[in-house]
Write a structure and sequence with these properties.
Length: 577
């Protein structure tokens, strides 16, 4: 066992200076960071942590059934409450590697998560020891930063740094790989009291005043302005500033998939989701705008479609983002501002004069009438949008909604219907199937007073359905809606529309009886294929205290529209007919 230098008698009388094991130091540091919930799975290389965990009843440990589920749960915990950081434990080798997908999901969507993985003893690192893997190398591309701790004295400052890195600037996941022998060793623990200062991860810069004045000037001169907002607005808490700017200068405002929820859908100036599966009227507005203001978004291919089709009539593009790497990466702006969205918009607002461009707003209202977000009902066949309309009617602009990946995700985003900003969580950057169900556990534990709905397809749900055991064991009150079309829906639509109509390996010819499956895990479970049952089923689920699984057998041929065909431009969208 590694032993630290013996402490002096004078030091031992100081209650702030104690000799603790490395595992105990981890827990002391987590408490110092305000952590109250840990998602985790024990194994050989992190057993010293679990040996001391019972001594810290302040920490609620949630035993997940798979490490990927733990990473997604930590993501949902952090993503659903501004300022929170998700924490997840795993052992070495396969345990740590099972988290890679969850860390990649958090990294792409800028979610602060701290993962602490056990590792083989320091002396065994690099020897191909049992359950050893190169966790740092494996996670380097999907974390904001990774640490391999090799000295017990470094545990406390490393954890403090990890939390700083996770929350600073553009948030993201951080991994700490902690060898087993350091968890068992003892050393003097001195709490970290000095703030972290790191040149590589500085605080967000203050917005440039000259650029702010230029942006205000462009807003004043614009005849056809449009604002597009992304998840950066939600992370920074800039929703009210966006609304105020939009109203003051009468700027129609749309959003990315990850920006859904940042702007009230029922606002007269609201556009809708933009891009590949965005609303037709939003795409038309972007393509006809003379000023485009991009706030807290990455401008990826799902937004721009074919890049040369994006905003062809624009005279000026303004891009505000906290991450300088995103400025000009895809769309080159005329004015760029590296700053936190809330700070930037708060400083911009006093410089913007009230204005109204009646002709532009009238034109957009016409486009909304010509290209509404709609679906085609088929008599007697349950449509997914009908289920979602009933669900959103019961959200009361307050519930947290999580959507998995696929057609269910886009339906849920396009029919999101809040009159004020709200939380709509989904895996946007990586498109990780299986994300929503475990993430909904984290969201509910992070927000116990909120109603939580999880919308999934049957394909994505079974990818992490093992977490039903966690959900029941912890009695986590989540309402799960499975939109069941007996296929990998989005893949099926792509094959039908873009690959010659050849359906290959896409039909889920066998799916479980979800009612029996839910009941086998101890969940309340219901199923229907009739619209008349949807409302009463949702009401029964909401009234139930505990997790509920609802299966809705929907139209097997229901598709997402509008959609831009692959390789086409923004204005080539195809609508429901």
């Amino acid at each position: 066992m590694i032993q630290a230098r013996p402490s002096s008698g004078a030091e031992e009388t100081d209650p702030e200076r104690r000799v603790l094991t490395g595992a105990e130091i981890v827990f002391e540091c987590l408490l110092a960071e305000g952590v109250s919930t840990i998602f985790g799975y024990p194994g050989g290389a992190n057993l010293p942590l679990y040996q001391h965990l019972p001594s810290y009843p302040q920490l609620h440990h949630v035993l997940v059934r798979h490490e990927q589920g733990g990473a997604h749960a930590a993501d949902g915990y952090a993503r659903s409450r501004r300022g929170a950081i998700g924490v997840v434990f795993a052992t070495s080798g396969p345990g740590a590697l099972n988290m890679v997908t969850g860390l990649a999901t958090a990294y792409a969507d800028s979610v602060p998560v701290v993962a602490i993985t056990g590792q083989v003893p320091v002396t065994a690192v690099g020897t191909d020891a049992f359950q050893e893997s190169d966790v740092i190398g494996s996670t380097m591309s999907v974390t904001k930063h990774s640490y391999l701790v090799t000295r017990i004295e470094d545990i406390a400052p490393t954890i403090q740094e990890a939390f700083h890195v996770a929350r600073s600037g553009r948030p993201g996941p951080v991994l700490i790989d902690l060898p087993k022998d350091l968890q068992q060793a003892t050393a003097e623990y001195v709490p970290c009291t000095e703030p972290v200062r790191m040149r590589s991860f500085p605080d967000a810069p203050q917005p440039d005043s000259m650029k702010l004045r230029r942006i205000a000037q462009l807003i004043g001169e614009a005849k056809r302005p449009v604002m597009l907002i992304g998840r950066g607005v939600i992370i920074s808490g800039a929703e009210e500033q966006v609304i105020e700017l939009s109203h003051r200068a009468n700027i129609p405002t749309g959003w990315t998939l990850l920006g859904t929820g940042a702007y009230p859908v029922r606002d007269p100036l609201a556009l809708q989701m933009v891009g590949f599966m965005g609303a037709g009227f939003t795409n038309r507005a972007v393509c006809d705008a003379d000023l485009l203001i991009l706030v807290g978004m990455r401008c990826d291919d799902r937004v721009t479609t074919r890049l040369d089709s994006f905003a062809p009539r624009v005279e000026h593009i303004v891009h505000i983002d906290i991450d300088p790497a995103e400025i000009g990466k895809n769309v080159v702006p005329h004015v760029s501002l590296v700053a936190d969205a809330r700070s930037a918009l708060s400083a911009l607002l006093p410089l913007v004069e009230p204005k109204r461009e009646h002709e532009w707003l009238t034109t957009i209202d016409q486009w909304k009438e010509e290209h509404p977000v709609k679906f085609v009902a088929r008599n007697g066949i349950l449509q997914p949008q009908e289920v979602l309309q009933e669900m959103y009617a019961r959200c009361h602009d307050e519930a947290i909604v999580l959507a998995d990946v696929g057609l269910n995700q886009i339906w849920a985003a396009l029919w999101f219907d809040y009159g004020k900003p709200g939380y709509f969580l989904n895996s946007g950057g990586t498109g990780t199937m299986g994300y929503a169900f475990p993430a909904s556990m984290g969201a509910k534990l992070s927000n116990p007073d909120k109603t939580v709905f999880c919308v999934s397809g049957e394909g994505g749900f079974v990818m992490n359905m093992q977490e039903m055991a966690t959900m029941v064991e912890q009695n986590i009150d989540v309402n799960v809606l499975i939109l069941n079309n007996a296929s990998l829906g989005m893949v099926r639509q792509f094959q039908d529309d873009f690959y010659g109509g050849i359906r290959s390996a896409v039909d889920l010819t066998f799916t479980p009886d979800f009612v029996k499956l839910g009941e086998a895990f101890g969940m309340k479970a219901m199923s229907t294929d009739k619209y008349s049952d949807v409302g009463p089923m949702l009401d029964e689920a909401i009234a139930h205290r505990g997790p509920v699984l609802m299966n809705f057998d929907i139209d097997k041929d229901a598709n997402v529209y509008p959609i831009v065909p692959l390789g086409k431009g923004m204005l080539d969208f195809v609508e429901a007919s």
